[in-house]
């Protein structure tokens, strides 16, 4: 039985939830937040009320129940809007809807979207009328494994969590001119930046720091930065700029940083801005006790990031989930590297994909694994869409394609596919096991064995380890069941074990060639109580002075 614990942010929730501009890397002034109370139901009568953007399974939604085999969900929102002028267009944006959505405005069909983790947009200008309008959304969520599904399970438990359904990110309107900037593509190095404005040919880019102006030519411009300030977790400097094209204007930012693999004193190292860097990180599931997929307020991301930085960590591995852009913006501005996982699809086989590889080293070929053609197509499309959606964020330094064989197929081809999309980041093709030939790193998961390096001549990454459990019943969602990899009876025992593994295993391995380590994990989640913060975010189990020192020690070790 899962208890629905309330976070402090959830207890303080008032007014319109998530009332911040949802797209921090392309900001316009004219927008309308549609979050708040909607009509909801599992049939078209929509006789209940739900608080959007929280999924109906969550405490914050006001619904909070298990829907069992139910797979259809209906949403209705009435809103006032002026009739658009002849030179205006109105866009309807959804941050994310799990898994499939059919959208109607004033009974007119607007469009369809599949996939529960990425944003989508429809132009609705022609369907709007003066005064009150009606938005109707029909959602189907059967946890179809041919689509990305992450860590959701109808029969939740252990490392699998309560499923979410329906709208779980902000819904919003935006008014734009007839000819408008549809997107930005930003790439940068140590002293240069290239900006492409999609949908327009002409315009002007203005760098706010210097008021320098650069004209767009065929929608793009490249320029250099004098006396560049480089982005690192310790110095997360962002350059803000605006793009003006005709009547449209957007504000955005970029950062100057470069990632590379270099041989340093006979060892392959992951480098940030030309220097060996140790990515000292945590597995971040992105689950919250009262909102499940969606924290009660956007500030919750900042609080998690700053709490982990206070412990000496500089990296979060965003595990099998794509967050609202606010999360990545906070990592950009606060200085937290993100290792971003692709969201798995395909069926999961416990014995074959977890038990045997945990205890038996093997390297099976994956050409015929997870052979469903639709699932394969959907996964590769989701990889492409994820990269295009998140590529502008400088905090993202690393892509993980497959995790522990979940949905894995033809990993070498997937590596080549991702490399064509983005050559500027490290790629971990197979995190944990079932490794093939092509990957920028050798990536190991070690929970029940002493920590060690792999055997390949590649940068060494310990992409999961730890999972130490100390459980505080007052702040635990499941008081009856506990999931983790090593249990301690007191907070003090947990702290001593963490200090030992960092001092006696991680720091020496960093000297020998380890480039990154991802401890499991940021927070408790349902049965799992192996987090450094409780699920309700009310108790930090480790104090900064007990762990922070190991961050600098790991940085020093990779430079020795």
Topology diagram in text:
Layout: H1 8-11, E1 31-33, E2 36-41, E3 48-52, E4 72-81, E5 88-94, E6 97-98, E7 100-105, E8 108-114, E9 120-123, E10 131-140, E11 166-167, E12 171-177, E13 183-188, E14 192-198, E15 204-207, E16 212-215, E17 220-224, E18 239-245, E19 248-254, E20 259-264, E21 267-272, E22 275-276, E23 279-284, H2 299-310, E24 315-318, H3 325-334, E25 337-341, H4 350-359, H5 373-390, E26 396-403, H6 411-421, E27 426-431, E28 442-446, E29 460-466, E30 468-469, E31 486-487, H7 491-512, E32 514-520, H8 544-547, H9 550-557
Helix pairs in contact: 2-3, 5-6, 7-9
Structural description of this entry:
It is a single chain. The protein is α/β, with parallel strands linked by helices and 560 residues long. It folds into three domains: 27-176, Galactose-binding domain-like (Jelly Rolls), CATH 2.60.120; 183-254, Sandwich (Immunoglobulin-like); 277-557, Glycosidases (TIM Barrel), CATH 3.20.20.80. It has nine helices and 32 strands. Helix 3 links the parallel strand 24 and strand 25 (337-341). Helix 5 (373-390) packs parallel to helix 6. The protein starts with 7 loop residues before the first helix and ends with a helix.
């Amino acid at each position: 039985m899962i208890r629905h614990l309330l976070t402090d942010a959830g207890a303080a929730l008032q007014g319109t939830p998530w009332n911040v501009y949802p797209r921090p890397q392309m900001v316009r002034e004219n927008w309308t937040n549609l979050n708040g109370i909607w009509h909801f139901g599992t049939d078209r009568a929509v006789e209940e009320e739900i608080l959007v953007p929280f999924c109906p399974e969550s405490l914050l939604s006001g619904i909070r129940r298990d829907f069992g085999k139910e797979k259809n969900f209906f949403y209705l929102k009435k809103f006032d809007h002026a009739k658009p002028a002849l030179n205006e267009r109105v866009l309807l944006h959804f941050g994310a809807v799990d898994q499939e959505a059919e959208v109607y405005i004033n009974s007119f069909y607007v469009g369809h979207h599949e996939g529960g983790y990425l944003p989508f947009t429809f132009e609705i200008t022609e369907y709007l009328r003066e005064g009150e309008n009606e938005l109707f959304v029909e959602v189907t969520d059967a946890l179809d494994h041919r689509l990305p599904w992450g860590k959701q399970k109808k029969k939740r438990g252990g490392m699998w969590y309560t499923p979410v359904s329906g709208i779980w990110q902000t819904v919003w309107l935006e008014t734009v001119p007839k000819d408008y900037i549809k997107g930005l593509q930003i790439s940068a190095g140590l002293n240069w930046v290239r900006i492409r404005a999609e949908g327009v040919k002409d315009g002007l880019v203005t760098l706010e720091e210097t008021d320098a102006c650069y004209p767009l030519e065929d929608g793009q411009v490249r320029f250099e930065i004098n006396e560049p300030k480089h982005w690192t977790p310790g110095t997360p400097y962002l350059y803000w700029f605006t793009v003006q094209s005709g009547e449209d204007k957007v504000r955005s930012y970029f950062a100057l940083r470069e990632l590379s693999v270099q041989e340093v004193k006979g060892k392959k190292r992951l480098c940030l801005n030309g220097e060996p860097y140790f990515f000292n990180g945590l597995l971040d599931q992105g689950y919250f006790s009262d909102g499940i997929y969606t924290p009660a307020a956007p500030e919750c991301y900042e609080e998690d990031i700053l709490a982990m930085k206070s412990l000496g960590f500089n990296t979060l591995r965003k595990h099998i989930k794509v967050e609202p852009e606010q999360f990545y913006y906070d990592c950009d501005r606060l200085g937290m590297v993100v290792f971003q996982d692709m969201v798995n699809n395909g069926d999961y086989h416990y014995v074959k994909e977890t038990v045997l590889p945990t205890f038996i080293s093997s390297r099976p070929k994956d050409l015929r694994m997870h052979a469903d053609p639709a699932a394969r197509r959907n996964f590769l499309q989701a990889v492409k869409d994820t990269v295009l959606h998140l590529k502008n964020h400088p905090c993202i330094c690393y892509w993980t394609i497959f995790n522990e064989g979940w949905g894995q197929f033809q990993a070498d081809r997937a590596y080549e596919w991702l490399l064509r999309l983005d050559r500027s980041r490290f790629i971990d093709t197979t995190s944990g096991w079932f490794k093939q030939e092509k990957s920028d790193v050798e990536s190991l998961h070690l929970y029940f064995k002493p920590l060690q390096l792999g055997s390949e001549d590649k940068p060494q990454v310990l992409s999961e380890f730890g999972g130490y459990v100390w459980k505080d019943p007052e702040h635990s969602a499941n008081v009856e069941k506990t999931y983790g990899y090593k249990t301690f009876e007191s907070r003090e025992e947990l702290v001593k074990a963490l200090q030992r593994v960092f001092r006696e295993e991680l720091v020496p391995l960093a000297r020998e060639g380890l480039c990154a380590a991802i401890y499991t994990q940021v927070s408790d989640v349902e049965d799992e109580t192996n987090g450094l913060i409780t699920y309700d975010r009310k108790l930090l189990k480790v104090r900064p002075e007990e762990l922070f020192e190991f961050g600098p020690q790991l940085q020093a070790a990779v430079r020795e």
